[in-house]
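Notes, p. 3: input format for complexes.
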Amino acid sequence: MNRDWANIRKDFPILNDTSHVYLDSAATSQKPQSVINAITKYYTNQNANIHRGIYSLSEEATMLYIASKEATASFINASSYRSIIYTRNATEGLNMSALLLENELEEGDEIVTTVMEHHSNLIPWMKLAQRKKCKITYVKVNEIGEIDMEEFKNSLNSKTKIVAFSHISNVLGTINPIDDICQIAKRNGAYIVIDGAQAVGHIPVDVGKYDCDFYAFSSHKMFGPTGLGVLYIKEELLDRFDPIFYGGEMVSHVALDEFKYNELPWKFEAGTPHIAGGIALHAAIIYLQEIGIENIEKRNLQLLQILQTQLQDLPYIKMYGTSPQKSSVVSFTMDGVHSHDIASLLDRDHICIRAGNHCAEPLVHSLSCNSLARVSLHIYNNEEDIQKLLISLKNIYHKLKNG
Amino acid sequence: MDDDMYRQYILDVYHHMQHKYIIDNATHTYTGFNASCGDQVKIFLHAEDGIIQDISFTGEGCLLSQVSAEMICAFAKGKRMKEIEEMHLDTLLDILGIHPTPTRLKCIELALVTLKKISTD
Ligand SMILES: Cc1ncc(COP(=O)(O)O)c(C=O)c1O
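Output follows (524 residues plus pyridoxal-5'-phosphate):
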């Protein structure tokens, strides 16, 4: 790699044009210029609807959209772009997974998930379980924020039809042992649904190796645009399942008394998709690949270690999620100071962090907290950002602690 | 009005709460809860003939939610219940003397909403 990290930071215009110290990449990442350019270029020079035009402008847009799918497939090692469905976001992908699996469930069947899930990977299963009168088992998290694997094994039985879990926790940062979980779930004959929202663009992802059935993620957390998500589904399932949405583009033949589904993956993408988003996601993937996902993983680990070491020195800070298998997300509390006050006061120093329950209320409560402050780092952050954070945190503590 | 939600006066109130305890002759109590952030305020109130004779609170949450509860208790003591029922958020903001950001407004509102629930019960 011939670029250094200081130069990579310069690829993100918002970090140069404002004085913000952006430490909330787990909520959404910032965008490199190449992604912003791809959107502008599409609407300026390439805009046309896809699949339908006979003219070359439409054909070009169609090719760009398909190229995006191919890039996404190869980025997560899916065998073909026929498995890649574009959605609005990870949440939509997880909801679609639950809807597609509805007919596979019978009353009394079981779904296994974990306490650490984001609401997006929780509520769709709670709703599905209600509709189909199924039971959900929640695997607990140990003191350092890892899934209890013994409990996971014990929670599976012959009635378990679905195992749904996050690749990386958005609160604890824990990178779950995905290979082991998938192997165990497969041996039990369950469908595997993975919430990869925090993983893609951070660590190598290989759906082929996991042999999972569903893998959902969001473009906006991996340097791509908002409004676009990806749902990988194993091809053999896509052939078997009926789509959820019906309309244009998802059919190849329509008469008044019959219709025929289009080929994959278009069968699952009714209506005009987010074409600009797909093309911009491709630009994001190219950007990630140019830097190299292993380099990104290493960089983030370095930043994480600097942050953790610094926070450890502050006796009034308690960190949650200290697994050695961890992404660059650090959640913490400060003695006597509420996380919303921390976030508001940091904001005055132009430091952006998240505070609250992080759309993972059951997890936050299981840690005996109401609210956590969360710092999440990405490759464009640097030691200076961390130093600024630390100085502000110390000031906040001294300002707000009693007396 | 001050843009600084954490100016010295607010911090002083926070560090020297006068009404954060439980009164034992409460005629009314009510707990308010902000589900999205976990802030909690429980108000204890002793009323006679529609007049608030004594009032206190307990709670847990961000500084703004607790300071707001403290200052609303100080304000409400001796007032008619009816007056509190009609109290507007702007009045509370005037008492506090701050301009919160939109997301923090609900922290300040919690004590007022809780107190109004009591007085309309
Ligand atoms: C672990 C996890 N799952 C799912 C989501 C939902 O992503 P989106 O809001 O883009 O649908 C998020 C985003 O916050 C997340 O962190």
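The mean pLDDT of chain A is 96.
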